[in-house]
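[job 0412] stage=complex_fold ligand=heme C status=START
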Amino acid sequence: MKYNTVVFIISFLFPSFLYANEPIDASFITKFEYGAMLYRNPRGIGCNKCHGKGDKTVTIAMYKDKKGITQSLKAPPISKLSYVSFMAKLKAKKNRSLVMPTYFLTDDEIKSIYHYVTNLNKK
Ligand code: HEC
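[job 0412] stage=complex_fold status=DONE, emitting structure tokens
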């Protein structure tokens, strides 16, 4: 599948992808709540839109390839990754992934999201 096709499908599925978000004041909320907010609203499309609760593989879309064979676009589980792999993925250079957007999050923000997603499924 071509890169443009993927961007088209994603913009169609998630129009909010195109809007920027307001900065937030994190002083009166817990680390977990802050992580939860960022997970849904990371100045770009929410992680939850593709990764759900982060504990399972999520099928984002099904499509037919050039040969008419049905293929699917999947997001992997992210709740059991090491902090190092998680950080590496979120700091990866633009266009390393054809599907997952590039985010511009600080190390602290990534740490909060990591804290949230690794604890969410323990509740
Ligand atoms: C548009 C869908 C989409 C969104 C939104 C998205 N991801 Fe992903 N993510 C993917 C896909 C697909 C992969 C699989 C490999 C790839 O394409 O990079 C992935 C891979 C990952 C990985 C690496 C998993 C592994 O096993 O190494 C991490 C970590 C991750 N995403 C975290 C996040 C976080 C945190 C957010 C929000 C800030 C997010 N993703 C938003 C689709 C998405």
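The chain has a mean pLDDT of 85.
[job 0412] exit 0
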